[in-house]
From TrEMBL, chains A, B:
InterPro entries: HTH_LacI (IPR000843), LacI/GalR-like_sensor (IPR046335), Lambda_DNA-bd_dom_sf (IPR010982), Peripla_BP_I (IPR028082). Residues 4-58 form the HTH lacI-type domain. It comes from the Bacteria. PANTHER family: HTH-TYPE TRANSCRIPTIONAL REGULATOR GALS (PTHR30146:SF109), LACI-RELATED TRANSCRIPTIONAL REPRESSOR (PTHR30146). This is LacI family transcriptional regulator. It holds the Pfam family LacI. One of its GO terms (molecular function) is DNA-binding transcription factor activity. Keywords: DNA-binding, Transcription, Transcription regulation. It comes from Hymenobacter perfusus.
Length: 342, 342
DNA sequence: AACGTTCCCGACATCGTTTGCGCAAATTAT
DNA sequence: ATAATTTGCGCAAACGATGTCGGGAACGTT
């Protein structure tokens, strides 16, 4: 388990380190025979180039940085899984940073990732982030950047997102078709791309079905603890309370389910509930929760692929684009009114 | 957002880099006035030492490596959360590696972590790992190592674990007290420390309550997909089938719940179910799931604290010990027979 | 006046690797 | 046979920071 350097190989073979280095990277100006010897020796000693030294030199560190709000979250942990799988296959390490939904920490994370000389950066923005100059700096330094899930329209980079509009549209339309008319939407910070897209899908479904969009039915969460209960209370005390809840995240869906049950509101008799979530136990809940599933792992995989493509073909600029992954509507009992009649 | 080096400060102040370096680390042999100037300049330029260069030099990299089987797992993602919180507070970065339950990958991860010159290593063993010489190598190189959750008795290092014996004992006793006599135990690979401890707790509870330990009621999972259904089928076709299931992990608990429901076995009328899990939606399941909760985040925190303590007080060897964090039994409807009578 | 101490600070080597340049030997062209 | 080219390889300088020397200036001591 000793760790050998290029020097060891050089000494072993009685040649210079430059020659070893060039031989290992297959330079044309090295004698094929020498190359063979070097390769053989490197193999024998189980030589692995020191990533630290490489990074310091400014060349590839074969590490990509991932900055996201929270690891302990169904969506993100699955996304990381996808990222890690691709990165591993293509020979990259993943260095993970959590912004904890803080703009401050996100900026610090970016700086640290840069000083660790990552070859590229994969990010999902914190909920506090509205200014993206720290990311523009990354781009200015020519470090590839791919955004996923929570993206910013102000940056001209590749983005990988779920079809938030389509998912929200489908969820809302499903609720309308099952007879709901007052559909509340619990969502997160309004300036986030995903919030806006989901809200737009929700609104479009309402309007295309001849229903009025009512701002009073929208609630914006802040990732605080136990914030869903009060929101539900407020909504249920409206003159015209909601008959359905459409939530925009894992946490909100679970919180809402909990709040509704605590208040003895029966689902789906009193109100329907549908979530935008990656909860893999959704069908084991009481009642089984209808959801719009976003393929978190796939989003992570595609984001990682795009990033590594960019890293490796730096010269030939790859097209900047927004990849939109379809979501899937899964109807379960929490929105299935007929089921109640059984 | 420019990034400055020690050279920039040296040039700015017309002094040498050595002086700047020493001034920054408060060496006694630098004129207080010079120190002040350097500090001030560093502050002004927002100087941050380059972690890569530090690592190369062999000194602290202020990064700790975390190697664990899977990120997308309730327990581990919460543990990472705890680790990251402590690491961040104490100025360390966290580099995460997933072994994907593979011994091969775990060894590769260890090598990579070492070549990235992490200051210390935090590990939970893959389910394939029985040989730990790769970790002994780490210790031989004087790199601090702390194991958590899945630990090995063959290594003389600090370990942080849940009270697996106590938790299993409590769960089993609870089942016995509620009238169960044939308690099946679904667990994971038998050579893992947590498996053995939980099994021992289960067995002790049985024997102290005058019940026979029956090997036929034990099933060992392998992290394969959909493996729980067949296990349940086998058990229910025994001459004397179980009247309760005690599962050793998140995945098994959820899988078991699903399997039992698919087979129309009513919980807890037909069989009770209790899990050893960190599922935070356990009380929203149908039925709400009794669990032994292990404080994943706390385990992560304590492990990180111990590791960083070891890193920073390398000289004075800290005591090696096994920290055992209490678990908590939470009884919900899945094991509450009386509740059925409502 | 000559010597020994302190006090500050700079030159240089170092970590592992890459890379520009140059140099000798081997090969080809004249 | 001499000149021009090619081939194969080594030297040394970087990357950013630290640490080992050692040296000059300003003291105090005989």
């Amino acid at each position: 388990m000793e760790v050998y350097t290029i020097k060891d190989i050089a000494r072993e073979l009685g040649i210079s380190t430059s020659t070893v280095s060039r031989a290992l990277r297959g330079s044309y100006e090295i004698n094929p025979e020498t190359k063979r010897l070097v390769m053989e020796c490197a193999e024998r000693l189980n030589y692995r180039p020191n990533p630290i030294a490489l990074s310091l030199k400014g060349s590839a560190s074969r590490a990509i940085g991932v900055i996201l709000p929270q690891i302990a979250n169904y969506f993100f942990s699955q996304a990381i899984n996808g990222i890690e799988a691709i990165a591993y296959n293509r020979g990259y390490h993943v260095i993970i940073f959590q912004s904890q939904e803080s703009y401050e920490r996100e900026m610090a994370n970016v700086q640290q990732a840069m000083s660790r000389k990552v070859d590229g950066l994969l990010m999902s923005l914190s909920s506090e982030t509205s200014d993206v100059t720290h990311l523009q700096d990354v781009l200015d330094k020519n470090v590839p950047l791919v955004l996923f899930d929570r993206v910013s329209s102000e940056l001209n980079v590749t983005k990988v997102v779920a079809d938030n509009f389509g998912g929200a549209f489908a969820a809302t339309e499903h609720l309308i078709r099952s007879g709901r008319r007052r559909i509340a939407h619990l969502t997160i910070q309004p300036w986030l791309s995903i919030t806006q897209e989901r809200l737009a899908g929700y609104r479009a479904a309402l309007e295309q079905n001849g229903l009025e969009f009512d701002e009073a039915l929208i609630r914006y969460g802040t990732f605080g603890p136990d914030e869903v209960g009060p929101m539900v209370d407020e909504l249920m005390h409206l003159d015209s309370p909601p008959d359905a809840f459409f939530t925009a995240s894992d946490r909100l869906a679970v919180g809402c389910l909990q709040a509704l049950r605590q208040r003895n509101l029966h689902i789906p008799d009193d109100v329907s509930l549908i979530g935008f979530t990656n909860l893999n136990v959704a069908d084991l809940l009481d009642p089984p929760l209808s959801t719009v599933v976003q393929p978190a792992q796939e989003i992570g995989q595609i984001a990682a692929e795009r990033l590594i493509d960019q890293i490796e073909r730096k010269l030939r600029a790859l097209p900047i684009e927004t990849v939109r992954i379809p979501t899937e509507l899964i109807v379960r009992r929490s929105t299935r009114l007929e089921a109640v009649k059984l």
